[in-house]
Batch of 3 targets.
Target 1
Amino acid sequence: RTQTVFGVGSTAARWMFIGEAPGAEEDRQGEPFVGRAGQLLTSMLKALGFAREDVYIANVLKCRPPGNRDPRPDEARCCRDYLDRQIELVAPALIVAIGRTAAQNLLATDMPLAKLRGTVHALGERRRPVLVTYHPAYLLRSPGEKRKAWQDLLLAREIVGRLERGET
Ligand code: URA
């Protein structure tokens, strides 16, 4: 990697998005989700009424794995304290885990993405709400699934709304 890619956005954000690891473009720019998949994520945020600056975006890994391979468990473990501290400091109302690898790492599970989507998971002692959705890189390959990803984001919006009204 050429540099660490730590995170970007508002530290007062109510929404936090957590992806897998920086890719080539992220490694070049030092910012998460700025490549092709990132541009799709940015468009999805816009459709929800958010600019990138309104949310907080980070990854499980802070460094690009060689050749974009999947993060290894020891690498995820190395970065975990940084991620946990980011979550603690931003203290978002809701975390959206982006894609299978991020979700499985974050939630320490090997459940498939299809099973992880659609329900609110509780993270850590504070039981922070986590929703899981498709990775935009997958949506670029399978545009037919975009509708389901949009449903995930609408569910996310409903949950944040409920939490902010003190209903949960
Ligand atoms: N994919 C990710 O999971 N994270 C990024 O930052 C970019 C692409």
Target 2
Amino acid sequence: MTFDTIQFEQQDYIGILTLNRPKAMNALNARLIEELTEVIDLITHDDSVRVLIVTGGEKVFAAGGDIKAMLACDPQAAKAYVRPIHQVFRMIEEMPKPTIAAISGFALGGGVELALVCDLRIAADNAKFGFPEINLGIFPAAGGSQRLPRLIGMSRAKELMFTGDTIDANQALEIGLVNQVVPAYEVMDAALKLAVKLSKKSPLTMGVLKSSLHSMLNTGQDTGLEMELEKLCYLFASHDQKEGMQAFVEKRKPEFTGK
Ligand code: CO8
């Protein structure tokens, strides 16, 4: 697969998606969103990819939405620009396989919003996070105003979004924006190590677990508990459940197939 604004490669069960607009600090323009949508659709339906790593490479994760492309937008054009971002971010969020953002350098605005739709975030110690939208006369509307408070709490989300201030990787760890901070040269190794670990779990169970966790965001607890029970019972019709439990009884490692 070849693209202009992203790169995709696969190592065993791990997909690695790299944003590739170095001259624009990986700003998310329409072409990048179009290509991202195409590759995310392929990965979602490709059983040979069990875990996806999303990265911007060694220098920058992403400096956000493309300001130059947005400058002249009227409300209608703004909607036409942002709607596909919303759609592809939902596709990433709902992908039935774990996703890991590996973040080096700046992750700003739409860049953080991309990291937020990944399940887990690993930051290099040189990573910097912020929502500068307030200084541009807009606000984090690629899902940020909805997802960030759910992740780190309303008060901290307001502080970041109202001030537009940038925080470093350790501050991001402290407020729960990222899961781990590692030395910059180790960020991809750390992401790959975690991805390999997750790729050995049952892909079927992983997808169902992810969907159960996400149902918490859209339902009350009573409905969520009912949905959880249904999803669990569904897994008892699978090979992977039998294999996982059989392997435990036989004191060996399970071999999951996703069936
Ligand atoms: N959009 C377009 N181009 C960008 C962006 C961007 N977000 N960020 C950087 N670039 C370009 C620069 O214009 C520059 O291009 P050129 O060489 O042609 O002048 C090149 O990338 C390198 O950037 P700098 O020279 O500025 O590099 P520095 O190392 O000095 O600074 C920074 C790096 C701090 C990352 C700086 O570039 C910066 O502040 N960028 C903008 C960050 C920002 O404000 N992000 C938020 C954007 S808005 C958003 O994400 C919301 C999207 C969804 C909602 C949309 C509602 C319509």
Target 3
Amino acid sequence: MASIFDFPISPSFSKELPADNEQNNFSRQVEGACYSYATPIKPKSPSLIHTSSQLFEEWGIEMEEEEQFVKIFSGEIPFKSFKPYAMCYGGHQFGQWAGQLGDGRAINIAELEINKKNIKIQLKGAGPTPYSRRADGLAVLRSSIREYLCSEAMYNLGIDTTRALSIVKTGDWIPRDMLYNGNIEDEQGAIVARVSESFIRFGNFEIFASRQDKENLKKLTDYTIKHHFSELDSPSKETYLAFFQEVVNRTKKLMINWQRVGFVHGVMNTDNMSILGQTIDYGPYGWLEEYNPGWTPNTTDAQHRRYRYGNQPSVALWNLTQLANTLYPLIEDAEPLQAILDAYKKEYIREQHAMMCSKLGFNNADAVSDEFIHILEENLRQSEIDMTLFFRELSSIEFTKFNEFWNVLKEVSYLEKSELKSRKKEWKEWFNCYLFRLHNEDLNVEERLTQMKKVNPKYVLRNYMAQLAIDQAETGNYSLIEELYNLLQNPYADQPNMEKWYTKRPEWARNKIGCSMLSCSS
Ligand code: AMP
Ligand code: MG
């Protein structure tokens, strides 16, 4: 069997797009280039924490030379002759144009030809680049574990995402002010090797438009279309519009999927929006526990909650509007761009409704009214019902009587039983209506529950689960990382010996740092 070092190096992004002429690695504004060369710093004593056996299997490779692997995926030595680089992008952060951002702590260390795809591999946390501004370019163990486990979990939920090949510990200690409150502590450094066909973000286009650099905007757009939207025609105004339409479609699909599983990204800035429609940059993310459209796990966003669960589809549209403005110089016609954005709104509402119908077990996307779903959401919110457990229980049991349903609600609510009781009447009305609608469906019960289990995951990476793995890993024990990695390979399957993870968030995690409070960069 082959090893990762057998794949041919095949530079594409770094071969076809303009490089920064300055080769020294210092913080600066980079103009007229898509990337800058930057070499990872040498880690003190790197060691392997975990690798994605699934990705190894997909690529048909084995871990042959672990020592070599660790050296390369910790940045100690280069990947063959590849010249590593960091990408230039800008972005709107929390609704404001923030200027140049770029890969401040990500360095692309290889572009490989794997199974007829051009795969980019980048190290997150391998040291400063010209885009690091005043930061150190490093990443700590806790945030690296969160990115590593969640990107692989997202993939297995069937949701488009960057992948993670490996996580290594660097052996270095990094000072971090975790909650930005002046409390600095040394934390262990780590590096995730991220994998994608492209790490291009909306912000890669925005930076050129903001500098009125139409030439490079066109180069980057043509490159993106040629390599990642190759079903489209050769460059023309029509092709650019078709490209924008496709990015809108993919982003819309991503939003529907995030909402379906209760994922809250936490930092939907335009520099964190993948042009491929992938989930990218796992930072202060979280999964809804008590159903609450107003919830965000990101403490940096606690005041305005711009990136709260219920706002993600609208923020995506706002971000797409920035992308439309960015592509305008290539299209020079605002009307069709606006028409695409307007259509997003209408289509999103329709698709979201169909998605909710599927979660409830209806085949027909018009089986129930918006009002019916709205009442359910209100009941879930007011009764503080765990989203994942609620929909999974609905997919597991054939409820025929309200009392059975009510007993389950008592189990999956975070409210005191006495408080929940005050919602009983509303739930009964909704439940009776639900049963009545289900009777109109022509699916048999078995089939219906099987279908529901395919859209209502049983296991998601709740913040407290990741935190348990982190606490353990900080003592050098990686067994929970392995356990959660395995669990989340099959999030839709009933895994009888893993029932301990099919439960509400424990009380101790309600207000614990890392479980309910997370901040941006770490
Ligand atoms: P994020 O909020 O993590 O998406 O980061 C926003 C910007 O800050 C990106 O350009 C990152 O590359 C950069 N950044 C975040 N953390 C660091 C760090 N520790 N060192 C250098 N740059 C960073
Ligand atoms: Mg980012």
